[in-house]
Specification:
alpha/beta, 14 strands, seven-stranded parallel beta sheet, Rossmann fold, three-stranded mixed beta sheet
Length: 328
């Protein structure tokens, strides 16, 4: 990567933020990470991730909130980042039903402040996290980047759609190179506890019921974290086509290998050598039936495609889970 300046990773104590920061540090980059360490899930998991990153001499952590524009501007003045990987967000498709204001602050105000700082400080490339949830109830599978995204079924999805539109506007107005990344059900070691894999493994390990919505018939495009980091790294270093009027792109980041939740549970059972006690429910508000990615655009632009099998990925997570919970 052609930069001697630090790279900013927002949401660095989060699941994907931690993994991309670790990869960049392993590549010899200097990483400035920012995170507000909120309590949406156990902050001790975030602290544990940070502990690993802080073992690298070229890592610096800032405990801060992107809603604080003054502090964020100061960070940009100090480092003049060439590359920014914006992953900080309030996540979850059901939580906004309980706490909608937190999504506006984190996902809309925070994104606006990042865009402002990037355009004032001549950032060479901003990459930001969008989500497959922007596709809403679209049922044309697999989902290509050109599929409609005008009917989000959750507030979280609505904020991510808004992020894409905001980024497009800034890119067009200020010729700012921006790449949006629509993640599809990312999983692996250090996963969030509110995600399906963590919850399922935790329940099976404790011999408790596993709750499956839509009676386990939903299909998801489970995408292993190392494969996601490979794609992000490739997107960072492969600059956008400078001949384009608007240096803005959106990419699906998924495995294009959909699995039903029943199949997903079956692989977990085989990996753990234990049977799940299933508790079946109707689909929840904010969820959609099926969702998986068309990755033709990734492939045609020379980026790596996810390759880790579900069996390999779940084994890695289960190994990490037992290690983490044993040491906790």
């Amino acid at each position: 990567m052609n930069t001697k300046k630090p790279i900013l990773v927002t949401g660095v104590a989060g699941f994907i933020g931690f993994h991309i920061a670790k990869r960049l540090l392993e590549m010899g980059m200097t990483v400035i990470g920012i995170d507000n360490l909120n309590d949406y899930y156990d902050p001790m998991l975030k602290v544990a991730r940070l502990g690993i990153l802080q073992d690298y001499e070229t890592f610096r952590f800032t405990h801060g909130d992107l809603a604080d524009l003054v502090s964020l501007e100061q960070l940009f003045y100090e480092h003049e980042f060439d590359y920014v990987v914006h992953l900080a967000a309030q996540v979850g498709v059901r939580y906004p039903i309980e706490a909608p204001v937190s999504y506006s602050k984190s996902n809309l105000v925070g994104m606006t402040h990042i865009l402002e700082c990037c355009r004032h400080h001549n950032t060479k490339h901003l990459l930001f996290a969008s989500s497959s949830s922007v596709y809403g109830t679209s049922n044309t599978m697999p989902l290509a980047e050109t599929a409609p995204t005008d009917e989000p079924v959750s507030l979280y999805a609505a904020t991510k759609k808004a992020n894409e539109v905001m980024a497009y506007s800034y890119s067009k107005l200020y010729q700012l190179p921006i790449t949006g990344m629509r993640f599809f059900t990312v999983y692996g070691p250090w996963n969030r506890p509110d995600m399906a894999l963590f919850k399922f493994v935790e329940a099976i390990d404790a011999e408790q019921e596993v709750t499956l919505y839509n009676y386990g018939k939903m299909m998801r495009d489970f995408t292993y974290i190392d494969d996601v980091v490979d794609v992000i790294s490739s997107l960072m270093v492969n600059r956008l086509n400078t001949d384009k009027v608007v240096p803005f792109e959106l990419y699906n980041i998924g495995s294009n290998n959909p699995q039903t939740l029943f199949d997903f549970i079956s692989v977990i059972e085989n990996t753990m050598g234990e049977k799940a006690k299933l508790n079946l429910h109707p689909i929840q508000a904010g969820d959609v039936q099926d969702r998986w990615a068309d990755v033709t655009k990734l492939k045609s632009n020379g980026h790596p495609l996810p390759k880790t099998s579900l069996q390999e990925g779940i084994q890695s997570f289960v190994d990490w889970y037992h290690s983490y919970t044993h040491d906790a």
